[in-house]
Specification:
By secondary structure, the protein is an alpha/beta fold. It has four domains: 4-83, Conserved hypothetical protein from pyrococcus furiosus pfu- 392566-001, ParB domain (Alpha-Beta Complex), CATH 3.90.1530; 104-175, no CATH class; 179-246; 295-360, no CATH class. 57% of the residues lie in helices and 9% in strands. It has helices at 27-40, 62-70, 85-97, 104-117, 124-139, 148-161, 165-175, 179-187, 196-202, 208-221, 225-237, 240-246, 269-290, 293-314, 339-360, and strands spanning 4-10, 14-15, 46-52, 55-60, 75-81, 331-332, 337-338. Strands 1-5-3-4-2 form a five-stranded mixed beta sheet. Helix 3 (85-97) runs antiparallel to helix 4 (104-117), helix 7 (165-175) crosses helix 9 and helix 14 packs across helix 15 (339-360). The longest helix is centred in the last third of the chain and has 22 residues, at 269-290. The termini are far apart.
Length: 361
């Protein structure tokens, strides 16, 4: 059981944790905190641990400590905890992971460091990949049990971090982004920064130089999150010459819709009942039409022609295993036509059918 006590400590006897998980302290936000403390007082004391010779090291509350130094406080109230360095590091990391004012990539670093504290030595990108596998394990068919490492990673996420897997994955992926991108982002006002999920998506581009160029283009275009994600996908799939054109500064990019999205429509009970009846009427009419002999016959021939065309696409590398004769030697003996002729005839029939339908319109 660790001992906890409150003391009034000389501010100069307190020093930051050298392995502080928070990497960036915004001067403006520290000044705002100092003004708040000046007006309302220090609501939450910082937490420290003794390190010998009457000195202390911060466990949590470095922003408050910095603000109090700005206010030139001589002594500050602090909760003193007798904890070892590993426990201190874990507490500091966990507190920062749950802070609202940190960037996703900062939280990703804390999570990565936390996993290392628990003996999981792998890159943030590798961890994100394993967490994706664990996530899909629960969402899809379980083709295999989780191994020992996966179970430990899952346990740390649930019992120590306490955040959804998807959120942890996003933070780890964001931390995996190019250091240059992270430096650029932290300089900007919060409202001008790219969304967390887009920084995470950028990290899936292995080439850091390409990452930076795509980042610069996204900053230029100011795309909504969904379109930015699609842009990254297109860049990854595009041939080099197309990619270069897409990344040309000053060139406007239009992201085409790749899928139809459902739209929520609010209906009154009466409207919903009327719509249900209309759907039933249409379904009955469709059944009646499809049950007609002439429609069934037409459908049978249509499927036949379509399948002949498919066969032609699949048989390019099929030949006689004895003499090597090509696939066109297959045929229908009933009318003495080979499969190649049957494919061409089917294509012609489909074109005629399509032409007839267009004329009907």
């Amino acid at each position: 059981m660790e001992e906890i006590k409150m003391e009034l400590i000389d501010i100069d006897k307190i020093s930051p944790n050298p392995s502080q998980p928070r990497q960036y302290f915004d001067r403006e936000s520290i000044e705002e905190l100092a003004n708040s403390i000046k007006q309302f007082g220090l609501i939450n004391p910082i937490r420290v641990r003794p390190i010998g010779n009457g000195n202390y090291q911060i466990i949590t509350g470095e922003r408050r400590w910095r603000a109090l130094k700005l206010l030139k406080w001589k002594k500050i109230p602090a909760i003193v905890e007798e904890v070892d360095e590993k426990t201190q590091s874990a507490k500091s990391l966990i507190e920062n992971i749950h802070r609202e004012d940190l960037e996703a990539f900062e939280k990703g670093k804390h999570i990565h460091d936390l996993f290392k504290l628990y003996g999981i030595e792998m890159s943030a990108k590798e961890l994100a990949g394993i967490l994706n596998s664990i996530r899909h394990y629960y969402q899809e068919h379980r083709t295999r049990p989780l191994n020992r490492t996966e179970k430990e990673i899952e346990r740390i996420c649930k019992e120590v971090i306490g955040k959804p897997l998807r959120t942890i994955i996003t933070w780890l992926e964001a931390y995996s982004a190019s250091p240059e991108i992270k430096r650029e982002e932290i300089k900007k006002p919060k409202e001008e920064r790219l969304p967390d999920d887009i920084i995470a998506r950028l990290s899936t581009i292995d080439d850091e130089e390409l990452q930076k160029r795509v980042y610069e283009k996204l900053v230029e275009l100011k795309l909504p999150s969904e379109e930015a994600s699609k842009f990254i996908t297109k860049i990854k799939k595009a041939p080099e010459e197309v990619r270069e054109e897409m990344l040309t500064p000053g060139l406007k990019i239009i992201i085409e819709e790749e899928e139809v999205k459902p739209v929520k429509v609010e209906l009154t009970p009466e409207e919903a009942e009327e719509l249900r009846k209309k759907i039933e009427e249409i379904e009955e009419e469709a059944k009646e039409i499809l049950s007609k002999p002439e429609v069934k016959e037409r459908g049978k021939w249509l499927r036949n022609w379509e399948n002949h065309v498919r066969i032609g696409n699949y048989l390019e590398n099929i030949f006689c295993p004895i003499c090597g004769a090509g696939w066109e030697n297959f045929g229908w003996i009933c009318h003495n036509i080979n499969i190649k002729e049957a494919v061409e005839l089917s294509k012609k029939k489909l074109e005629e059918l399509k032409g007839g339908e267009n004329e009907g319109r």
